[in-house]
Design brief:
3-stranded antiparallel sheet; elongated; 19 helices; about 575 residues; alpha+beta; 9-stranded mixed sheet
C-alpha cells in the first residue's frame, strides 16, 4: 500500500469559483476586454488584461460569508490553471500585474469600456429589456490614496455634463448614503435592464456629485452611446424621485418614469386627498392605482397615485409612534421651560422661541406670567400685591389634529409620473410593475456594498485605480446576475429544483445560496510513481445535479462529463 503524504498529495480550494469562471467564459468577457485592451504575449507578458480582470472578478466573488474581498493573495491556494488558463499560477496575478490592469482600464476610459462590454453581452445573452433603471449610491473609501494639487485642479475643470464625463472621480466628502460622513467617498451610478437586472452601464463620479444631476446626464450619455448601436429598443428610463425635476425642468426628449417628490405642492395635494376622491383600480397584492393627467412645469404627464395596503400597515405603526414621541418631546420641553425664572417678559418670550424643539404634530403655547414676592414675612394684607420677582412661562401642548390627519392619510401612498402618454404602450396597471423593477438596481448596490467591499491598499494608491476598481465591482455584479438568471431559467425549462437555505426545493434560488453549497469542493493532485492524477473531491449528488445547468465549461472545471444522460467524474 502506498502511503499518501504531503509530499505526494496537494490540494487547492475550488469551492464555487468554477461557476464564476465558467460564467465569465460563457459570456466572452475576457475576449471582449482583450479586443479593446490588447496585450502582446510575445513581448513578455504571460497573462492578458482580460485574464487579470477575470482574476479580480473571481477574487471579488470568492466570498463565502457576507463580505466582498479584493486581495491578490486570494489566489494563492486556488487552482488557477483550471479557472484562468492552462499553465497559469497565482504569482502571475501579483500586485503589479493587477495594478497595471487597473491603470490600463482607466487609460482606455472606465465608463466607456464597461458600456462597450455590457451592451454586446446583454444582446448576445438576450438580457436586454425595454426599460433602463438607474440609481446611484456612495462608496466610502477606507484605504490610502494619493492626489496632488494638479490632479485636483484637473478634476475640478472636468465636471461631468450630458456629453462628457470626468475621467477621474474626485475622492472627497459628500452626502453619505452609508451614514459615514467621516469618510471620503466616491459616487457610483448604475443602470440595469431586463429580468436579470443586468448592469448595462456604470459611471463613477466625485464624492460630492448630485443625484439630480448625474442621473439625468447619464441618460443623455447613454442615448448618445446607443446611436452607434443597431437593433436596440427605444428605452424607457426609470429612476427614483432624484431624476424627476431634471426631466421636467429640461423638457426631456426621452421616455421616462420617476417617482414624484412629495415636496412638490401639487403632489402633496393629491396624496392628502381622502379615499373617496379617487377612482381606485385594484391591481392585486394589496395595491390600488388611480391615474390622472398632469401638466406640471408645462410638461404633459400621466400621474399614477399608488396605494399599498402593506406599506400603509407598516408606515402607520411608525407614524403613530412618531406622533407620541413628538408629544413627549413637546411636554418635556414645556416642563423644562416652566421651571425657569426670567427677569423680564422679553427674556421669557425669547427663551420660548429658542428652546422650543422642532415639532411636526404639536405646538407649545405659553405666555409669561408674573411671579411676585412680598418683602415682609407673614401673611400680606388683603389687596397688597408683592413686588415683581420675575416671570415664568405657563402653557400647554396642543395637538395639531389637522396636520396629523393629513399626514396619516398619506401613508402607504406615492405618485409615479411618466411622459409616456400612450396607454397602449404603457397601460396604467403596468406603471407600478415597471417601477418595481427598480428594486433590481437597488439590489445591485446592496450586493456591491454588502458590509463594504474590502480591498488591498494597492488598489487605492490613486483615484484612477479607484475608478477602475468600481468597474471591476460592477463586473462582479454582472457575472453574479447572469449566473443567477441563467440557473433559474434552466431550472424552470427542465422543471428541476435545488434546495434553498431551509432545505425546501425551489426554482428561484439565489446564486449566493448555490455558491455556499459548493463550499468544501477541492482539487486534489496525487502523484504516485511520477504519475500525476488530478481529482475534484467532495462533489455530492446535489452539486452534480446543479453543474449541468452551468454548461460544458463548468462541467470541465469540476472534472465531470455527461454520458447517456448520466453525470460522470472525469479524472485528469
Amino acid at each position: 500500500m502506498i502511503e499518501l503524504t504531503d509530499k505526494n498529495v496537494s490540494g487547492k480550494v475550488l469551492d464555487h469559483l468554477g461557476l464564476v469562471a465558467s460564467t465569465i467564459y460563457d459570456i466572452g468577457l475576457v475576449q471582449k476586454i482583450d479586443t479593446r485592451l490588447p496585450l502582446s504575449l510575445n513581448k513578455g507578458a504571460k497573462v492578458t488584461i482580460g485574464q487579470r480582470v477575470a482574476a479580480m472578478i473571481i477574487n471579488g466573488l470568492g466570498f463565502m460569508n457576507t463580505r466582498l474581498y479584493m486581495f491578490p493573495e486570494f489566489l494563492d491556494n486556488k487552482p488557477v490553471d483550471r479557472l484562468l488558463g492552462d499553465g497559469l499560477i497565482a504569482e502571475d496575478f501579483n500586485d503589479d500585474a493587477l495594478g497595471r490592469a487597473l491603470d490600463a482600464i482607466h487609460e482606455y476610459g472606465t465608463n466607456q469600456l464597461f458600456s462597450e462590454i455590457a451592451f454586446p453581452i446583454a444582446i448576445e445573452q438576450k438580457l436586454m429589456g425595454a426599460s433602463i433603471h438607474l440609481d446611484s449610491s456612495s462608496l466610502s473609501v477606507h484605504g490610502e490614496y494619493t492626489e496632488d494639487e494638479d490632479s485636483i485642479k484637473l478634476l475640478d475643470d472636468n465636471e461631468s455634463n450630458s456629453e462628457t464625463l470626468a475621467t477621474t472621480p474626485r475622492i472627497t466628502h459628500g452626502f453619505s448614503k452609508d451614514h459615514r460622513p467621516d469618510l471620503k467617498q466616491v459616487v457610483i451610478n448604475i443602470a440595469t435592464t431586463g429580468a436579470a437586472g443586468f448592469p448595462i452601464m456604470m459611471e463613477s463620479h466625485s464624492g460630492n456629485a448630485s443625484d439630480q444631476k448625474i442621473l439625468y446626464e447619464a441618460v443623455k450619455r447613454m442615448q448618445k452611446f446607443c446611436k452607434g448601436l443597431n437593433e436596440l429598443p427605444d428605452f424607457m428610463y426609470v429612476a427614483d424621485s432624484a431624476m424627476y425635476n431634471s426631466c421636467v425642468n429640461n423638457s426631456a426628449d426621452f421616455i421616462w418614469m420617476s417617482r414624484v417628490p412629495e415636496s412638490i405642492s401639487e403632489a402633496k395635494t393629491w396624496l392628502q386627498k381622502e379615499d373617496d376622491n379617487f377612482a381606485w383600480k385594484d391591481i392585486g397584492n394589496g395595491y390600488r392605482v388611480c391615474t390622472t393627467k398632469s401638466k406640471y412645469k408645462d410638461i404633459d404627464q400621466r400621474w399614477c397615485v399608488v396605494s399599498s395596503e402593506q406599506a400603509y400597515k407598516r408606515e402607520i405603526v411608525t407614524f403613530e409612534k412618531n406622533v407620541i414621541k413628538d408629544m413627549e418631546l413637546a411636554e418635556k420641553a414645556l416642563k423644562k421651560l416652566s421651571h425657569q425664572y426670567f427677569s423680564c417678559k422679553q427674556d421669557a418670550t425669547e427663551a420660548l422661541k429658542k428652546s422650543t424643539p422642532k415639532l411636526k404634530y404639536h405646538q407649545i403655547t405659553a405666555v409669561p406670567i408674573i411671579i411676585r414676592k412680598h418683602q415682609q414675612n407673614g401673611r400680606p394684607k388683603k389687596g397688597v400685591l408683592g413686588n415683581i420677582a420675575g416671570y415664568k412661562l405657563q402653557g400647554e401642548v396642543i395637538k395639531d389634529t389637522k396636520k396629523i390627519d393629513l399626514a396619516r392619510v398619506m401613508k402607504g401612498r406615492f405618485i409615479l409620473a411618466t411622459n409616456q402618454l400612450n396607454t397602449d404602450l404603457l397601460p396604467d396597471e403596468r406603471i407600478l410593475s415597471e417601477y418595481k423593477e427598480q428594486s433590481k438596481t437597488e439590489s445591485g448596490f446592496k450586493f456591491i456594498k454588502d458590509n463594504s467591499f474590502e480591498v488591498s491598499s494597492i488598489f487605492l494608491k490613486k483615484p484612477e485605480r479607484v475608478a477602475a476598481l468600481m468597474m471591476i465591482m460592477t463586473l462582479c455584479l454582472m457575472v453574479y446576475s447572469v449566473a443567477q438568471y441563467r440557473l433559474r431559467e434552466s431550472l424552470k425549462e427542465l422543471n428541476e429544483h435545488v434546495p434553498n437555505q431551509n432545505g425546501k426545493l425551489t426554482q428561484n434560488p439565489t446564486i449566493k445560496r448555490v455558491f455556499k453549497l459548493f463550499q468544501g469542493v477541492q482539487v486534489l493532485t496525487v502523484t504516485i510513481n511520477d504519475i500525476e492524477q488530478v481529482l475534484v473531491i467532495n462533489l455530492n449528488t446535489t452539486l452534480k445535479s446543479i453543474l449541468p445547468h452551468f454548461g460544458t465549461r463548468a462541467m470541465e472545471i469540476y472534472g465531470l462529463t455527461i454520458q447517456n444522460n448520466t453525470v460522470l467524474s472525469n479524472a485528469k
